[in-house]
Design goal:
The chain is mainly beta. The protein is 0% helix and 37% strand.
Length: 393
Amino acid sequence: MNRVRLLIAHTAPKPHRPRSRNRVIAVVAVALATLTTAACSPDAATPDSDPTSAETSSAIESPRRSDSTSEPAGTPARVATDLESPWSTAFYRGSALISERDSGRVLELPTTSNGTWGPRVVGTIEDSVHNGEGGLLGLAVREDELYVYTTTAQDNRIVRYQLIGNPGSLRLGDSDIVLDGIPAASYHNGGRLAFGPDGMLYATVGDAGDADTAQDLDTLGGKILRLTPDGGVPDDNPLENSPVYSYGHRNPQGLGWGADGTMYATEFGQDTWDELNIIEAGENYGWPIVEGIADDADFIDPVQQWAPEDASPSGMAVVGGNLFIANLRGEVLRIVPAADPTASTEYFAGEYGRLRDAVAGPGGSVWLLTNNTDGRGTPQPGDDHLMQVDITN
């Protein structure tokens, strides 16, 4: 049943030994004032955290507030309501495309106020199976092709579809598998897709509940992958004949690039630290040996970390020199300046519930997806929403 309605408000080398964080960038100054152990609350097994996580609790000095002048220009405008567990947004020729995790549907709606159609169903992804956190996840667009990251009964896979028709009447055409055999489970599926400034396809892959795979270079679990648009292995990947670009990840879900080409990724920790990382080819980010900042020369430390109850960072957009990070449990839009990724500022705390995705939209805007109907939030009337907010510079 399509109960969506439109509310437009306005217009190859071998692996090398990873370097310590001190040789990469400056990181958050950590002040471990106290270290306590307490029983985990029921929330410890909520958004994308491990339901069997250990009983730990730590205190960290909060990241300092950003001095950046880029910020949301007022209240987000609701562009669409009554979405069902939306997960990702991508743009194509004046249309916004939205994935619905549980239904497997791809929806289309106009990106301008003079659109008189949508949201409408472009198609339902064949073989997509909803299981816990699995289902239809990330979307990416290249030319007239839609790439989807989806869970099937056997695996996670990346599938490419031809987009046929014009905005307002788009439909899915022929498909081909770009990459299959990605580990799948009821949680930790990763699932974000993005084309980098080098034209290559990047995908975040979770450990699918098997933490040891994150350190195993012969598996795809717990990795960030880099592929050609056709699914081949680029000649300049860090590992010979391997799509693995970085490893030691638990459940990364946000990807973005700064104007200088720096690659950023957000990652769900277990119950100690969520992370913002700068991604370098062939490097090891520590999971499950370490979580958060470890000061261990064998691993790359995050540039910023947060307690999971304050974060659970999912989608991320880079606009105007700033990283806009959507947070689930934290229920905030967190803005991090690329010029100083140890700082951050929070917006809309608790106003819209869980935020799943942030994506760069037309005219320098940021579009946000809420995620309150996925079984872990508290839906309010009209949930879930796609919202647009202009950004001041």
